[in-house]
Amino acid sequence: MIDGEIAVPSRSSGLDGWESGLAPHRPTRILVFDSGIGGLSVAREIRAARPDAELTYVADDAGFPYGAWEEAALTTRIVALAGELIATHAPDLFVIACNTASTLVLPSLRSTYSTTFVGTVPAIKPAASTTRSGMISVLATVGTVARDYTHALIDTYASHLEVTLVGSTRLAGLAEAHMRGLPIADADVAAEIRPCFRKHGARRTDRVVLACTHYPFLLDSFRRTAPWPVEWIDPAPAIARRVVQLVGPARAGSACGRGRAVFTSGTAPSGELVELLAALSLSA
Ligand code: DGL
């Protein structure tokens, strides 16, 4: 059952309001999953939209980066891991905050588990419907640009446009370093985004889809190093709206929900990441 507040079975004592015997409800549980910490770009929008939800953020950092994984092996890993996470955390909603995973494993997850999954896939549709020049680029991992799913999105929404697919092997790692407060060079970022920028006479790229959830954390650097201004399309707000459609809005006056961050490597977060997690009320 998915709703704004979820009835708790009688044996689930210890949850909000249950001990008093008054309100047999507990907060909505949302699990947000990514290969690393980039999915926090999605988690922060969900936290803003549903501050009362109990949020579990899972970084499969033992498997990071997903970009270069072979498809069958990555599917097996994520489907098995999702099963363990569902058993442990019993989420009402499971958000795959990773394009590299979503464009591959959503059908397998949905056919294996009855939990509701929300995926993150390249925002080609909004880019295609708003471009003025007819030239858009999709910036993603090499895995995402190779996926049949991504090519099907282009065929469906952007077959009349010039679409440039740019697979980066380095940006997710650069984003992770930046999120931990480590220095990264603008020149390295510039080299990765450069192929997104194309020109034909007076026409040039005007939309770049951020098709990896790590990339919104590099937006300042993208803007500084871009050869010309473009719209950078981040799907995170749309994903949060979808989450609210499925679980309902926050209850007026409800307290800020608890949250935790789980790292599959078992490594404790360090540096500025600790503050980033704290800002989302996620304790490690
Ligand atoms: N955050 C992931 C995505 O949205 C990918 C990062 C990785 O390479 O693991 O695609």
Explain the overall architecture.
Helix 2 packs across helix 3 (99-112). This protein has 2 domains: 6-121 and 237-279, 3-Layer(aba) Sandwich (Rossmann fold); 124-234, 3-Layer(aba) Sandwich (Rossmann fold), CATH 3.40.50.1860. It has helices spanning 40-49, 71-89, 99-112, 124-130, 142-146, 148-157, 171-179, 186-193, 219-225, 236-247, 272-279, and strands spanning 6-7, 25-26, 29-34, 54-59, 93-96, 116-118, 135-141, 162-168, 199-200, 203-204, 207-210, 231-233, 259-263. It has a 5-stranded parallel β-sheet with strand order 6-5-3-4-13. A 4-stranded parallel β-sheet has the order 8-7-11-12. The chain has 284 residues and is α/β, with parallel strands linked by helices. Strand 5, helix 3 (99-112) and strand 6 (116-118) form a beta-alpha-beta unit. Residues 1-24 have low confidence and may be disordered. The chain is globular, with a radius of gyration of 19 Å. The structure holds D-glutamic acid. The site of D-glutamic acid has 17 residues, from helix 3.
CATH class of the largest domain: Alpha Beta
- Report the structural category: alpha/beta
**Secondary-structure element sequence?**
EEEHEHEHEHEHHEHHEEEHEHEH
Radius of gyration (Å): 19 Å
Terminal Cα span:
28 Å
Q: Spell out which ligands are present.
A: D-glutamic acid
The residue ranges in which pLDDT falls below 50 over 5 or more consecutive positions are 1-24
In the CATH hierarchy, the third-tier topology of the largest domain is known as Rossmann fold
Number of strands: 13
Average the pLDDT over all residues and give the rounded result: 92
Oligomer: single chain
The number of helical elements comes to: 11
> What does the largest sheet look like?
5 strands, parallel
| Share in β-strands | 15-25%
